[in-house]
Amino acid sequence: MSNKVILIVLDGLSYPVAHHCMGYLNGLIEADSATLYKLECELPSMSRPLYECILTGISPIKSGIVNNEVVRLSYFDSIFSLAQKAGKTTAAAAYYWVSELYNRAPFVVIRDRFTHDIQLPIQHGCFYQADHYPDDHLFMDAEYLRSTYSPDFLLIHPMNIDDTGHKFGFDSPQYRNAARKIDTVLSSYLPSWIEQGYQIMVTSDHGMNNDHSHGGILAEERTVPLFVIGNQFSHQAQCAVEQTEICGTVCALLGIDFTDKKICHELLAGDQS
Ligand SMILES: [Zn+2]
Asked: Where are the transmembrane segments (predicted)?
């Protein structure tokens, strides 16, 4: 199997809000073009630890990235490093912590804001530092990377849902509207990406609570969505997927062999083992 994969991590998006507020993604489900699964994020339910979890398959307790202040490169192979070593092209439009985990730490804005270096795990990057950097601008950055460099693996990581949740809390119109807004942004890009045959996953690192934060085990801060779109997914109704399996599953889609990453075989078409 070898397919181009776009992984979209909508920072801070709790499962029920994804399920109830994202009409375009739910429309894809009703049209049999997408399937939504529920997964529990690893702990602590915090951003940097879970970027590492999603991108390496290693839980925070094992990776050592146990809070947002651990500023260093990851000790593990990531989707980026494995893809780059396999001769594939990698790109990310993401928060600067992703650059710090896989390219260079600490982040140096003049050097790293726009990255183009095929020796680095993330070969092409647009990295931002402000949590209110507009999601629609980030998608413009991502589309620039996709259309210019044709990456095999593209990470898109917008921050406005999380930023809004920190300001107004989980049970707020503002938080729900931030999810509705990004759903509209997705509807501007996904039809073309689907038509071009990309395998697309839309998930989140963690959710949000009513105290305007996250980090613990409440359902609203721990339960996150995983939408899958593309003909290489099984689209079976039930699937016990773990956050630690996203990395290996993306590697399987990319056709990268010889990784020790855990794969969720149930997610994949023609691979029910
Ligand atoms: Zn947050």
From this structure: none
Q: Residue 258: is its pLDDT beyond 80?
A: no
Q: In what order do the strands lie in the sheet with 90-95?
A: 34-40, 223-229, 199-203, 5-9, 153-156, 90-95, 124-128, 114-116
**Distance between Cα 166 and ligand 1 center (Å):** 6
Band (2; pLDDT cuts 50, 70, 90):
low
| Dist CA 144 CA 138 (whole Å) | 10
Q: Which domains can be identified in the chain, with CATH numbers?
A: 5-267 (3.40.720.10)
- The CA 99 to ligand 1 mean position distance, Å, reads 18
Sign of CA dihedral 222, 172, 179, 167: negative
The pairing of strands 34-40 and 124-128 is unpaired
Q: How far is the CA of 164 from the centre of ligand 1 (A)?
A: 9
Q: How many whole angstroms from 241 Cα to the centroid of ligand 1?
A: 23
Over residues 51-62, the mean pLDDT reads 98
CA distance 23 to 213: 25
Torsion of CA 208, 214, 220, 225, to 10 degrees: 70
**For 136-152, how does the pLDDT look when each residue is reduced to its tens digit (9 = 90+)?**
999 999 999 999 999 99
Going from the Cα of 12 to the center of ligand 1, the distance in angstroms, rounded, reads 6
pTM over 0.90: yes
Task: Give mean pLDDT, residues 87-111.
Answer: 98
Torsion angle of alpha carbons 184, 186, 192, 194, nearest 10°?
-130
pLDDT at 272 over 70: no
Q: What is the DSSP letter of 246?
A: H
203 CA from centroid of ligand 1 (Å): 15
Distance 21 CA to ligand 1 centre (A): 19
Ligand 1: distance of its center to the CA of 271 in Å? 35
